[in-house]
Structure formats: C-alpha cells, structure tokens
Records
---
Amino acid sequence: MAPLPPQDRQRLIRHLLAITDLAKRDAELAARRLDAFLADFQDGPDVG
C-alpha cells in the first residue's frame, strides 16, 4: 500500500481495520469481506 496516494492508503487501512475488528465477532463474515477486499485491491490499477 505504500506507493498509493495518502488519501487512498488511509481509506484502505481503515477498511482493513474494520475487517479485523469484525473478525473478533464474526470470523466467517470477516473472511468474506477480506476476500472481497483483496479481490478489489488486485483488480485495481497498478500503482508500482
């Protein structure tokens, strides 16, 4: 995430923190959201 613009990086970090917080209560839902997050991240434009 380091090569991303600061605003995008902060948004992605907040999203990951929300997923990790969700994992404390519902691991299955957190896993689905993490899979979706990673799929979206991989489909995004190359920034490196």
---
Amino acid sequence: MSDHQHDVAALERESATAARLFDVRRIIGGLFAVYGVIVTIAGFTASDADLKKAQGININLWTGLGMLALGLFFLVWLKLRPTVPPTAEELTGEAPEDTPAS
C-alpha cells in the first residue's frame, strides 16, 4: 500500500471517530442522563414542605425519572444505530458510478 493510500485510510478512520464523538445524540443523552440523576436524587430527598407546595406530588422525582429515561433512550439509540461517516463520493459531491445522475 502506498503512502497516499495509507494517509487516506488514516484520515477516514479519524473522520469516523470524529463523527461518532460529536454525534448530537451522545451530547443530549448524556446531559439528560446526568441531570436526570441529579433531579431524581433531589426528589428522593424532598421535604414534607416541598411536597405540600406541589399538592402532594413529588415533582422532582417524576421529572428526574422522565429525564433519566429520555437520556437513556438517546444513548441506547446511539448504540443501536451508530453514525456512519460520509463516503468520499458524498464529500466530493460526485454521484456513484452505478446510479445515473439526474
């Protein structure tokens, strides 16, 4: 394999890593999961006065569990359907050879 082919292969690997690293599902899922844990803990430690203000509903607990579920949904979605980096043809804007250009 020539040096040029080796360089192209290395750039493709770096592009795939960057695409997976900066996937918005990872950021949203991670933030919702972290905030969900924090709010759920606040719900477990709610005082009687807090519950009385919310008419007996532990809002922090339910909101935290909802946020945690949403965050885990995004992270599972990311795991099941990972990001596919664009091909060289897509980056250059060329049509693939086997399909006619319109």
---
Amino acid sequence: MRHHRLLVPGAAAACLLLAIPASAADATPGAPGIGDSYYPSYGNGGYDVSHYDLRLKYQPKTDRLEGTATIVADARQDLSRFNLDFALDVSEVLVGGKKAAFKATGDHELEITPAAPLTSGRPFTVVVRYSGTPSKVVANGFTSWLRTPDGGIAANEPESAWWWFPSNDHPLDKATYDVSVAVPDGTQAISNGTLQSTSSQLGWTRYNWRSNKPQATYLATLAVGKFDITTDTTANGLPVINAYSKDLGDNAGAARASVERSAEIVDWESTVFGPYPFDALGGYVPNVPTGYALETQTRPFYSPKGFAKGANPSLIVHELAHQWFGDSVSLKDWRDIWINEGFASYAQWLWSEKEGEGTAQELADYTYASYPADDPFWKVEPGNPGAENQFHDAVYDRGALALQALRNHIGDKDFFAILKGWTAEHRYGNASVKDFVAYAEKVSGKPLASLFDTWLFTPSKPAAAQARAAEVSPAKAPARPKSWQRIQDTHSAHGR
C-alpha cells in the first residue's frame, strides 16, 4: 500500500518539514533483503516502487541487451543508500537526476549511494543504464534467461528480473510497467499487458507494452523471436494476444489447440473466481527446451513440452487461474506458495468436474488413496513446504485436497463465496496462508484452524478418522478419474 497525505491549510508546518531533505547523520542504508523467510537476499528494504519504465534494445544474433530503466519509488525511511536486484553490467546510475555512486555486490545486488540522502515519505526516481549478454550471466548458480534459435526469453520463478531489468525483486513490492523494446525488423517482442504502439526506423522495430495493474517482478516477462501471433477479443471486449514460435515442430498443433482456448477458460473462471482482474490475456509458446510453464501476468509462458502428449487445456486452466491466485492476489512471503498453487490446482479439479472427467470429490478421494502413509509425499507441508519443496507435487495435490476438505466442511455456498470474496478483498494486493484461514473463518462462521493444521501443516498422512471427517476417505480404492494424468502432467510442467 502507498500512503498519500491529504494536505489541509492547518498542515502548512508539516509541508515545510517534508521539504527539508534528510540529513546524512539521520539517514541509514536500506536493507539488502526484504525479509523473506525462504530467500532473505531477495528484494530490498527502505523504499517501495510504483512504476518501472524499461527502454530496451535487443539483438537476437548476439544475445546483446542494452537498456535504460527508469524506476519511480517512494522512500520508506531516510535513505543514505539502497539496493536493487540486478546482475547485468551497469554503466551509469542517476537518482533524482544527479549521478549516484554504485557498485555490484554479491551475485545480484546493485548498491546505490545517491548524491544526497533521500527523505522518508518522498518520491524519488532512479535511472539505470546497463547492458550485457543475459544468457552468459550466472547468479546463485543458474540463469533465468532462456535462449531460443531466434531470440531470448525471460520467464522463471521465483526470480527472472535480474537478467533484464533492475528491480526490487519480491512480490511484496508490486508496480505498474511500461516496456519498450527495439528488435531487428522481422522479429517480434512480446511482453505483459496491452500493446500500445509499434514503430520502425533504420532496420529496427520498437514494441511498446503497458501493464497498468500492480505486477510482481517475477511475473514480468519478455520474449523476443519470430512468432505467429493471433489476436482476438473476449465477449467482454478484452484483447487476447497469443504467440507461437514458428519452429515448434510436432508440438505446434497441440499448443495452439490448448492456448487458443484461453478466452473461453477465462470466461468460465470468471464465473467461479469473480471478474477477471486485468485488461488483457493470452499466452505464448517459444521454442525452448524447458518443461515448465509460468503464470506471467496477462500472458502466461508455456514450454512446448507441455503439449508433447497432445492438447492440454487443463494446463491453461492452471496458469490462467493464477491470474487471480498469485498474480492479482500475491503472496506475502514465498512460504505462502499454497495460496498460489493450491488454488490453481483446485481450478483444474473444478474444470475436470465441469468437463465430466472426474469430480473434485473423486479427485480428492483418489489423491488420498493413491499415496500410502509412508510415502514422502505426506512429509511435505503445503502451508510451509520449504524452499527446496516449493514446487513439490504435494503443494499441488495436497494443496487442492485441503480445499476440497474445506468445501466439504463448510458447504458449497460458503466455499464458493469465499473464492470470490477472497479475490475481491485482496485484489492487486498481497496475502498469506494465515490471512486465508482467517477470511474463511469469517465467511463461514466456523473455527477452521484444526482443519487447516491437518491438511496443510501436518508432515504425515491425515488419519482415517480425520479424512472421514473431511469426507475424503473412500470405503474402497477409487477408480482413477479420467483427468488425473493430465493434471499430474501439469505439476511437472509447473515445477522449475
């Protein structure tokens, strides 16, 4: 949340105080991390970003990226120094139009010292000029920049921004975006939101994209290459933009047969989760060797391997459900990953129910029966799985199982009211597992701590009596629902 002061005549003295810059003696450095329990070095303290303006130039042949990032932020303390998360080479930094000292520390920190301290409560602007070859940059032992035969892609979780723009890289600091990218004529640049304009000059075409709703840094994406692009509008008039690499081979047809259903799926999900929270939608499938998918805001990224077994609309259901659960309502801490993945997985169960391929109850029964008590699956707590298990099958399957247990316990009326109310109450904000439990208790009027402890925070299989109480303990081994394998394929496509 950004706090704006309402100035009244009697507040003249306060105005004068605000105009006084912070003194060097009072100012202190912002923290080099935002305080996440899994990734303590991610994000930064001392400020809050409201907008990123990225002006880029990218040459696919050499993987050379040049950029100027203009970052609009508010100081949250008197700042003598602050950090951005970034891994490319920086040539110049200006703060408030004045040159600032800077240096790289660690493998993804850009430490900036402005010419004068920044005053708490006041806005400031940072300009960073930079360049590099993203695919050659390794941070924390890996790269999140994907090369393709005709370009490059930025899409990964929980981090991808370091390889293409400086940022406060944590979901707690969401912002709006303008992304302007110049690429050689005949090549396209895809990003989030709506395409504002294109222009060509001297062999280069510039694409200007805008995301006008708060967006977490890991949900920002950039795809440069040669794409077949399809456009349409939803029944409500929202623009739909899908893009496919021209060299997807055997996976091309199945990819199109899946991604082209995005508008249909969003229309259905809107009836379950409430109004779609953004002003555009779609998806893109670049020619990359990876196997995962990612809910990049308004325009999910899909690997071709996600369609190697044929069309998979269930995968599209999962990534588009994230537009509500994860993108609009974002986690406060990476340990809260269940409020992203559990709900997106349950959306697949509801889709299966709608399509007649197995009800959510049948999927819950089969999930519970499929894993014996000594299976490591039950050792992972979806409510706090640990960084090493953030994308474990249990976060998906146990996560969805917890929601079916809740549905059975409180009834459909309250359950579906909670899904819509939750996405409305926390729209464009952040929330935690604890927040969801409290909200569900408020709506249902029932104490639910014990239920969530059993299904989200117990490192063992819930006992038969507990399962019976949640109505997920079948009397005999259930038949495998038709949708089961496709949903399992989504888990492997969503893990990193």
